[in-house]
C-alpha cells in the first residue's frame, strides 16, 4: 500500500511563533521537499496575504520532479453559491493542480462559530468540493476538529465526511486540530471511517499532547493512506506531526512505500536545510536526524556499539543520511577515545600512554568546566598536544581589548594583538562590534598573509555560559565557538574567569583547527 505524503510546512508550519519565511525561502524549501519525495506541498492560503499571493505566482514557473504545489482554503461561505465565493475563486486562480479545503466537522463549531445550521454546513462542504472537482482539480477535504467532533457527535462528523466523499474528494483528511487525541482513539476511529467513507482517508495531527507522530502512524496502520505533517514538526502552539520522524518510521519500520531509498538518505540534509532557512537552530536531539541521534557517550556502550552497531542503534544512521559518532567526555573509556580519534583522522590505537594521558587531561578539564562534547576541534588539538604533534601556527606575545562608548551612542571595541609568526613580529589592531569580533579581525590581519586558508574560515555561532552564578562577576565562564570553512563545521571551547580570555582560547583553537584542515586549493603559504 503506497502512502501519499503531504507537507504543510509552508502554511501550517509558519504558524509557529517566531517563524517567518520569505517568498524566496518558500521556493527554496519547495525544491528540497521535492528532492525528498514529498508528493504534495501546501504553499499557503491564497488571497489571505500578499506573500502567499506572490508565492503562487512564483510557483507557476517551478520545475519540480514529482511534487505538486497545493493551495489551501476554506469551503464556501454560508448562503453563498460556490461560483460567487471569493475564497474558492482565489484557489482556482492560483492555477494549482491540487487544492485543499477545510470545513467544520464538529457540530458545536457549526452552530457557535459559523452560526449556521448543520444542514447548511454539509451543503457548504459538498458544494465546495464538487465545484473545485468540476474545475478539473485534485481536491482534498480537511475535516477540521474531526476527532473532537466525532467523540461528541459521531453521526454528524461522519455525515460531513461522507458529503465530501460523495462530491468527489480525492481524500478525506481527519484532523486532530486541537492535538489532544490519544493514539488508541485515533486508531479506533480511523478504522471505522475507512470502512464507512467511500474515499481514501488521511490524517492531519497536531502535537499538543505529544502524540502527533504516534497518531499519524497508528492512523496508517488502521488504513489511512494520506499523511499530512510539517518538517521538524513546526506549527502552531506545540507544532504539527513531524514528517522527519514519520517518513523513516513508515519506510523502515512499517514497510510502507512513501519515498525511495535515495530520497530517504536526504532526510537529515533536508531537515537541517529547512531549519536553517527558517532561522531555527536544528535540534541536535531530534530523532533520526539530530547530531546526537546516533551518538554514543558512555565508554562501555560506545565500545560495544563499535563492534556490533545494530545492537545499539535502532536503524542504520546512513539510511537517513546521518552518522554514528562517539562523544568524548569524562565518562569516556579508552575504547571511546580511540574511536573518537579515528573519527577525527588520528590513529592512537597502539599509543596506550597517549590515550591514558589524554583521558586524564579530559577528566581534569571537564572537572574544571570544559566540555568536549560539542568541541571536536579543541579535542583534536588536545590530542595533538598529548602526542607531542602540536605545532602552533603563531606565538602570542600579548593582546589588549578596549571598549569605547562614543558620543553618538555607538559602542565600538578595539583589539590590538602582538604575536610572532615564523620568527617575524607583528602588531595588528582592528575594530569590531564586540571583543571576539575585534580579536578575530586583528588576528586575521596579523597572520592572514601566511595562511591563505584563513579566508575560508568563518565563525558561525558564539555561546557563553556562566558555570557558577553564585560567584557573581567572578564566576568561571565557558565559551563555545562553532566555525565552518564552507565544507565542514567544528566546535571549540575556552574556559576562564575572564570572558575575553575564554573567548580567545576558543577562537585560537577554532583558527588552528581550520588551518590544520584547509579546504582544497587554499593550502598554507610557504
Mean pLDDT: 88
Rg of Cα set: 28 Å
* Low-confidence regions: none
Structural class: alpha/beta
CATH fold-level topology of the largest domain? TIM Barrel
CA-based shape: elongated
CATH C-level label of the largest domain? Alpha Beta
Number of domains: 3
Going by CATH, the homologous superfamily of the largest domain would be Aldolase class I
Strand ordering within the main sheet: 1-2-3-4-5-6-7-8
Percent of residues in helices: 25-40%
Mind telling me which CATH architecture of the largest domain this is?
Answer: Alpha-Beta Barrel
Please report the number of helical segments. 18
- Distance linking N and C termini: 62 Å
Number of strands: 16
Strand content: 15-25%
- What is the makeup of the main sheet? 8 strands, parallel, barrel
Kindly describe this structure.
It contains 18 helices and 16 strands. With 526 residues, it is α/β, with parallel strands linked by helices. The protein has 3 domains: 4-259, Aldolase class I (TIM Barrel); 295-385, no CATH class; 459-513, 2-Layer Sandwich (Double Stranded RNA Binding Domain). The strands form 4 sheets. It has an 8-stranded parallel beta barrel with strand order 1-2-3-4-5-6-7-8, surrounded by 10 helices. Strands 11-12-13 form a 3-stranded antiparallel sheet, with helices on one face. Strands 14-15-16 form a 3-stranded antiparallel sheet. It is elongated and about 85 Å long. The model has no long low-confidence stretch (mean pLDDT 88).
Amino acid at each position: 500500500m503506497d502512502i501519499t505524503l503531504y507537507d504543510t510546512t509552508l502554511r501550517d508550519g509558519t504558524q509557529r511563533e517566531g517563524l517567518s519565511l520569505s517568498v524566496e525561502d518558500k521556493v527554496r524549501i519547495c525544491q528540497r521537499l521535492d528532492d525528498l519525495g514529498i508528493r504534495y506541498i501546501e504553499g499557503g492560503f491564497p488571497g489571505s496575504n500578499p506573500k502567499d499571493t506572490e508565492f503562487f505566482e512564483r510557483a507557476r514557473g517551478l520545475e519540480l520532479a514529482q511534487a505538486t504545489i497545493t493551495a489551501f482554503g476554506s469551503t464556501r461561505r454560508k448562503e453563498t453559491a460556490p461560483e460567487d465565493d471569493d475564497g474558492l475563486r482565489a484557489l482556482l486562480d492560483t492555477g494549482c493542480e491540487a487544492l485543499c479545503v477545510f470545513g467544520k466537522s464538529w457540530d458545536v463549531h457549526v452552530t457557535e462559530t459559523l452560526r449556521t445550521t448543520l444542514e447548511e454546513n454539509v451543503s457548504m462542504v459538498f458544494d465546495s468540493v464538487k465545484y473545485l472537482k468540476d474545475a478539473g482539480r485534485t481536491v482534498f477535504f480537511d475535516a477540521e476538529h474531526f476527532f473532537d467532533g466525532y467523540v461528541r457527535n459521531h453521526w454528524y462528523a461522519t455525515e460531513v465526511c461522507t458529503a465530501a466523499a460523495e462530491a468527489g474528494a480525492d481524500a478525506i483528511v481527519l484532523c486532530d486540530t486541537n492535538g489532544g487525541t490519544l493514539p488508541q482513539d485515533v486508531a479506533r476511529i480511523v478504522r471505522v471511517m475507512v470502512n464507512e467513507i467511500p474515499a481514501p482517508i488521511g490524517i492531519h495531527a497536531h502535537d499538543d499532547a505529544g502524540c502527533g507522530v504516534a497518531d499519524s502512524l497508528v492512523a496508517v496502520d488502521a488504513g489511512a493512506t494520506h499523511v499530512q505533517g510539517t518538517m521538524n514538526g513546526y506549527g502552531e502552539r506545540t507544532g504539527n506531526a513531524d514528517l522527519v520522524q514519520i517518513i523513516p518510521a513508515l519506510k523502515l519500520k512499517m514497510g510502507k512505500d512513501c519515498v525511495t531509498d535515495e530520497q530517504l538518505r536526504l532526510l537529515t540534509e533536508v531537515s537541517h536545510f529547512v531549519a536553517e532557512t527558517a532561522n531555527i537552530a536544528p535540534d541536535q536531539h531530534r530523532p533520526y536526524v539530530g547530531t546526537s541521534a546516533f551518538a554514543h557517550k558512555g565508554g562501555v556502550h560506545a565500545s560495544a556499539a563499535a563492534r556490533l552497531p545494530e545492537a545499539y542503534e535502532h536503524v542504520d544512521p546512513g539510511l537517513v543520511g546521518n552518522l554514528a559518532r562517539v562523544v568524548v567526555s569524562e565518562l569516556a573509556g579508552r575504547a571511546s577515545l580511540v574511536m573518537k580519534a579515528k573519527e577525527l583522522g588520528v590513529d592512537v590505537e597502539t599509543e596506550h600512554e597517549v590515550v591514558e594521558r589524554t583521558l586524564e587531561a579530559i577528566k581534569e578539564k571537564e572537572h574544571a568546566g570544559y566540555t568536549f562534547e560539542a568541541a571536536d576541534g579543541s579535542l583534536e588539538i588536545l590530542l595533538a598536544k598529548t602526542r607531542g604533534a602540536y605545532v602552533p601556527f603563531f606565538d602570542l606575545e600579548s593582546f589588549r581589548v578596549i571598549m569605547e562608548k562614543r558620543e553618538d551612542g555607538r559602542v565600538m571595541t578595539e583589539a590590538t594583538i602582538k604575536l610572532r609568526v615564523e620568527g617575524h613580529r607583528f602588531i595588528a589592531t582592528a575594530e569590531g562590534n564586540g571583543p571576539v569580533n575585534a580579536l578575530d579581525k586583528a588576528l586575521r590581519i596579523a597572520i592572514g598573509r601566511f595562511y591563505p586558508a584563513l579566508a575560508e574560515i568563518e565563525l558561525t555561532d558564539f555561546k557563553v555560559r556562566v558555570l557558577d552564578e553564585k560567584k557573581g562577576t567572578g564566576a568561571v565562564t565557558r565559551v563555545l565557538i562553532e566555525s565552518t570553512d564552507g565544507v565542514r563545521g567544528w566546535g571549540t571551547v575556552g574556559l576562564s574567569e575572564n570572558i575575553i580570555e575564554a573567548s580567545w582560547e576558543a577562537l585560537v583553537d577554532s583558527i588552528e583547527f581550520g588551518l590544520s584542515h584547509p579546504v582544497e586549493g587554499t593550502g598554507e603559504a610557504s
